[in-house]
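Lab notebook: predicted structure, single chain.

Context: the supervisor wants predicted structures on file for every construct in the current expression panel, including those that have not yet been purified. This is the next one on the list. No modifications to the sequence; it matches the entry in the shared construct table.
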Amino acid sequence: MATLVRACRKALTSTSTAQPLLRRGFAVESAAAIRESPDRVKWDYRGQRRIIPLGQWTPKIAVDAYVAPNVVLAGQVTVGDGSSVWNGAVLRGDLNKITIEFCSNIQERCVLHAAWSSPTGLPAHTFIERYVTIGACSLLRSCTIEPECIVGQHSILMEGSLMETHSILEAGSVLPPGRRIPTGELWAGNPARFVRALTHEETLEIPKLAVAINDLSRSHFSEFLPYSTAYLEVEKLKKSFGMSI
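Prediction complete. Output recorded below exactly as produced.
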């Protein structure tokens, strides 16, 4: 009986030592079988593309406009002077034009696109005029926003909708297709409805907000110049360690 137990233990020990060797051998064989072909095309997957031309259309960005590194601009998109498009926003001008004029801002994770045509007969492109603030996570499709307006966070503006000058749409509101917000009014809700008229002081604060966000974008803009200000921090660190610059 003792002889049988010793024989079983010996067989189990030899099997356990052989299994890692077999695995190693299979790994070497599989690596040799999956050798990369020299003719294979090597693609670059290091990051998403910020500028995506579509056909003859290429996005246009003004020299002093700030567009965050992880923004996507595709097709017929124009970002005007002093404007800013913040992190995670997507502007897709594959079907129609998207225009952002002077000192307007598109905040984080907004989505802007346009349809072929508008059911209301109004222009189907998305047009954002000067001193307009679009709150984070908003969706705009084939709408027109006149100068000095505010769109609250998580709002939706559908095809053919229009915001006239000095108007505000509260956060989380939905402006249905073809709906118009008259000048100097505050709207809110789903669907959006008239709440009250804006005071003169409130209308004066609308462009000030756009200018303040434009000033804030200057500090972000300087970090993404071809030669950013990061070298100043490197020089300071080298000095602290007594290294030659």
